[in-house]
């Protein structure tokens, strides 16, 4: 992958100041092996932060046509790559703040080029130095490679996310493009839920009286979804 631009989720929201349009949190975490069997090592961002200061952008969905601003603070700590930044006062910037406020956007992601890395005996790639181009706010469904891990146990959490998205959609107070992105996120979640439920039922065949019972709340949520 060396020389190619990569994107990885792994950062969380820490604080949101809607009045001043400021957001803080993490773009990336250290010490966790992701679904690509990669791990960011502390220090991997230190050189690029110095060398590219002022040229690392805050984007929406990795979309260079929608810059949310630049980072006032960008630094490594024990947890990961910490940031603070002000969201621009544009239509998609205001949409982004609404998605933060509704709890729909809870993750961040980085766009980078790997400079130095190696593999351990288990085949895990240790990323030791990167060239960082941008950090993005990402909504549910933005990364189609992110799998569900045990959907049955997380069905309540999934329903909460769906309810949040539906609430924002019904408000109608969004740009058309953001509106369509959230509709797509719902469809992606519905597809993943169906596939995960089908796979689970194949592994352990439930009795006729309990088949799909665990999934009824989610199914009902989708069936009752109307704009």
Total separate domains: 2
Number of strands: 8
- Characterize the quaternary organization of these chains: single chain
Strand content: 25-35%
Secondary structure category:
alpha+beta
Order of helices and strands: EEEHEEEHEEHHH
Q: What profile does the largest beta sheet have?
A: 7 strands, mixed, barrel
Task: Describe the protein.
- With 227 residues, the chain is an alpha+beta fold.
- It has two domains: 134 residues, no CATH class; 69 residues.
- The chain is built from five helices and eight strands.
- A seven-stranded mixed β-barrel has the order 1-2-6-5-4-8-7.
- Strand 1 and strand 2 form a beta hairpin.
- It is globular, with a radius of gyration of 19 Å.
- The termini are far apart.
- About 13% of the residues have low confidence.
Features:
8 strands; 7-stranded mixed beta barrel; globular; alpha+beta; 5 helices; 2 domains; 31% helix; 227 residues
In short:
This protein is α+β, with helices and mostly antiparallel strands and 227 residues long.
How is this fold's topology laid out?
Elements: E1 5-17, E2 22-29, E3 38-40, H1 46-51, E4 57-60, E5 63-76, E6 80-86, H2 91-102, E7 107-119, E8 125-138, H3 155-171, H4 176-203, H5 216-223
Parallel strand pairs: 3-8, 4-8
Antiparallel strand pairs: 1-2, 1-7, 2-6, 4-5, 5-6, 7-8
């Amino acid at each position: 992958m060396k020389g190619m631009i990569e994107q990885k989720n792994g950062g969380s929201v820490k604080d949101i100041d809607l009045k001043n349009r400021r957001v803080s949190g993490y773009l990336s975490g250290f010490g966790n092996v992701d679904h690509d069997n990669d791990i960011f090592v502390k220090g991997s961002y230190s050189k690029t932060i110095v060398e590219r200061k002022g040229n690392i952008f805050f984007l929406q969905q990795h979309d260079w046509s929608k810059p949310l601003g630049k980072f006032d603070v960008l630094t490594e700590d024990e947890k990961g790559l910490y940031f603070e930044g002000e969201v621009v006062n544009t239509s998609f910037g205001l949409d982004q703040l609404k998605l933060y406020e509704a709890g729909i956007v809870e993750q961040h992601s980085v766009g980078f080029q790997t400079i130095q890395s190696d593999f351990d005996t288990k085949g895990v790639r240790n990323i030791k130095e990167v060239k960082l181009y941008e950090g993005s706010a990402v909504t549910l469904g933005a990364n189609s490679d992110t799998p569900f891990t045990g959907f049955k146990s997380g069905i309540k959490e999934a329903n909460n996310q769906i309810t949040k998205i539906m609430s924002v959609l019904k408000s109608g107070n969004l740009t058309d493009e953001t509106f369509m992105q959230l509709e797509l996120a719902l469809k992606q979640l519905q597809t993943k839920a169906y596939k995960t439920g089908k796979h689970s039922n194949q592994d352990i065949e439930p009795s006729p009286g309990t088949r799909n019972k665990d999934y009824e709340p989610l199914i009902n949520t989708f069936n009752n979804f109307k704009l």
